[in-house]
Amino acid sequence: MPRVGIILASVRDGRRGEQVARWVAEAAAHRTDAEFELIDLRDHPLPHLETEKPALLTRGAYEDERTSAWAAAIAPCDGYVIVTPEYNHAMPGSLKNAVDHLYVEWNDKAAGFVSYGVDGGVRSVEQLRQLCGVLQLADVAVQASLTLADDFEDRTVFRPRESHARTLDMMLDGVVRWSEALAPLRSTATRPAASGATATDAATAETEIRTRIAGIIQGIRAKDLDALRRIYAPDVVSFDVEPPLQHVGVDAKLKNWARAFTVFDDVSYELRDLAVEVGGDIAFAHAFGRLSGTLATGDRTEGMWVRGTFCFRRIDGAWLVVHDQASLPVDMQAGRPVADLEP
Ligand SMILES: Cc1cc2nc3c(=O)[nH]c(=O)nc-3n(C[C@H](O)[C@H](O)[C@H](O)COP(=O)(O)O)c2cc1C
Description:
The protein is an alpha/beta fold. It folds into two domains: 3-188, Rossmann fold; 192-337, Nuclear Transport Factor 2, Chain: A (Roll). 36% of the residues lie in helices and 32% in strands. It contains eleven helices and 16 strands. Helix 3 packs across helix 9 (199-221). The radius of gyration is 22 Å and the shape is elongated. The two termini are 42 Å apart. Flavin mononucleotide (FMN) is lined by residues 10, 12, 15-17, 85-89, 117-119, 121.
């Protein structure tokens, strides 16, 4: 089933956009042909684009963890509904800036639009359609355009005219159908044959893996066990720093995380020197990782750096962790782990 992200573009205090996005999400919730989730740009406060290389060239290898988190929200979606206002006859800067931070994450997917404003926000959508061309994002023609005079009581409380519900549904039909129709293109790009795989295929696979790893970091920070579950294979074998010698199966792996989450009140995870190698349907990655935060006791801990290895297998088109290990070096003479090394 396709996954569709409803992107709320306005980040303004007192934004009307929240009411509009809620209306879209409520209509989407009645559908059984796709899964929908709200992606609020306020949850992704990105800096103004300042990287030297455009995302078109870096292809998912983002250094800034805010960009990685944004990529982790956008990449898993098969299509999007962009809920946008119009500012000075243009799309909001928050939206354009967020779009520009990524590239491959948008490719070969579908997008539909809900706009609002004094004049219905139509010029904002015209600009977005122009952007869709270069992003290789298929834009659905039907759009819902809402005006402050006719669709907001006292120009404040959202009360859309009845006809908009049907338009919205038609637009969602289009996004879902095109998201499905473009799936073979996405899987061609991400499924290199064991022989004859192109550099682009491998780069796209690497992007997906980096996005998965960013998803682990995001899942830990949010203490979101469901999000973490989606990243591991059901039969993952994990050699974690904590005993026992191995955790077999995703439930055992998550039990370990659940235990860690009770120790921390507020938890953060930092990753350094991430390297990824892809070969066919198998890939591995290594990095240094550190768990830190505020303990349930109220004390702050900076944690310790561990060596981490992630082994991925592509299963039914999705890269999943089938094995991981986290370890500390051992002082062989003292027989003790060394926990104060830094990358
Ligand atoms: C800086 C600014 C410029 C605006 N320019 C336009 C415009 O060109 N066309 C339009 O239809 N509405 C325009 N509006 C009205 C907005 O569409 C309206 O305030 C809308 O609620 C903004 O969305 P938001 O509340 O979710 O941020 C503008 C609003 C702002 C704040």
